[in-house]
Specification:
Layout lengths: L1 H8 L8 H7 L5 E7 L6 H11 L35 H11 L4 E11 L9 E10 L3 E2 L3 E14 L2 E15 L23 H8 L4 E5 L5 E2 L14 E5 L3 E10 L11 E8 L4 E7 L11 E9 L12 E8 L1 H4 L4
Parallel strand pairs: 12-14
Antiparallel strand pairs: 1-3, 2-6, 3-5, 4-5, 5-6, 7-8, 7-9, 10-11, 10-13, 11-12, 13-14
The structure holds zinc ion.
């Protein structure tokens, strides 16, 4: 045990996982006890939330308003000043991880369950436990542990919902030393089950827009559900490729290895009405203007395969300023 911890204290995760066993002992321990929401469930906070979310559901207004269920966590947050009465286990767990070199943290996901709506005037209480600590995992970010905390939210004795929050606390992977003269490559897209169809389309040189089959609303970027009606069924429509520059920024700083600043990043409004972030090509960065007509094309990047490549060269949709416009700008 001791040797492993000493190695851990030097910032190295050894081959055996004695640290993991120590972390597991924190499962079930309290991270906060008898927490109290800073405010009663109230109309102004609900209104701000709904404005930020663009949610106009009438259930959230008026004297009988309920709070949007996804606000669950908002009622338990400590704000800048924090909560008093935090239990020590959570800090201890994080200290152990820090000492082992797992000094970086990234939030990975959150799950909520709702048992009954919160209503105006409800006084929210909560308890948080360290629900689980994963086995040691190695991810692209580095090696570490997923820690899940569960917050039970109550009004009086009634459990009204639970909020699970998962983080990865990890030792950052060492950056691979690139041989001198190797040009850094553009970051690869993160393809997941919600957006895989989009990237499959891009490989075929098709820009596919999601369309809700319940209400017909187009959406981009790809999402599992419709923002207009909540419908979960969808099909796709191929974009015509016509669009205009809706907005843009010119990037000067910070520098990213694969990009040569300054360069323009455009928000392109497609003829179909949805917008997409992309590069504007065919004009110098300082000639990009709002309203410029552009046309879709597909560009290959980083043709030279490198070790660790998945799939072929990177293909990305970009937008070219139409030639007859080039002379008219500036
Ligand atoms: Zn819809």
């Amino acid at each position: 045990m001791r040797g492993g911890l000493e190695a851990a204290a030097k910032g190295e995760l050894g081959a055996s996982d004695e640290l993991g066993a120590r972390l597991k002992a924190y499962e079930g321990r309290s991270a906060s006890v008898a927490g109290k929401g800073k405010d009663l469930v109230n109309e102004p906070m609900i209104r701000h939330w709904c404005e930020a979310m663009g949610d106009t559901d009438p259930a959230y207004t008026g004297p009988d308003a309920i709070a949007p269920p996804t606000m669950l966590q908002a009622w338990t947050m400590g704000g800048l000043s924090g909560h008093t009465g935090r239990a020590g286990a959570h800090d201890e767990l994080f200290d152990l991880l820090d000492e082992a070199g797992c000094t970086s943290v990234v939030a990975t996901d959150c799950e909520q369950e709702y048992l009954r709506p919160l209503r105006l005037g409800d006084e929210v209480g909560f308890d948080t436990v360290i629900e689980s600590v994963s086995d040691r995992k190695t991810t692209k970010l580095g090696t570490g542990y997923f820690v899940t905390t569960r917050t039970d939210v109550r009004v009086g004795q009634d459990l009204v919902g639970t909020h699970r929050f998962r983080i990865l606390k990890y030792a950052p992977a060492r950056q691979k030393q690139e041989p001198k003269g190797t040009r850094a490559r553009r970051p690869r897209p993160v393809v997941n089950r919600d957006n895989a169809g989009f990237w499959e389309g891009v490989e075929r040189h098709q820009l596919l827009i999601q369309r809700c089959t319940d209400c017909g609303t187009f959406r981009h970027p790809w999402l599992p559900g419709c923002n207009a009606c909540g419908g979960l069924d969808w099909d796709t429509v191929e974009a015509s490729g016509e669009g205009t520059v809706y907005s843009y920024v010119v990037m000067h700083h910070p520098p990213f290895p694969a990009f040569d600043p300054p360069y323009a990043v455009g928000l392109i409004e497609l003829a179909e009405g949805v917008r997409i972030v992309s590069n504007v090509v065919g004009v110098p960065y300082d000639k990009v203007r709002i309203g410029l007509p552009v046309r879709l094309e597909f560009r290959r990047y980083d043709d030279e395969p490198q070790e660790g490549d998945e799939g072929g060269p990177l293909v990305l949709p970009v937008f070219r300023v139409l030639e007859d416009q080039v002379g008219e700008v500036g």
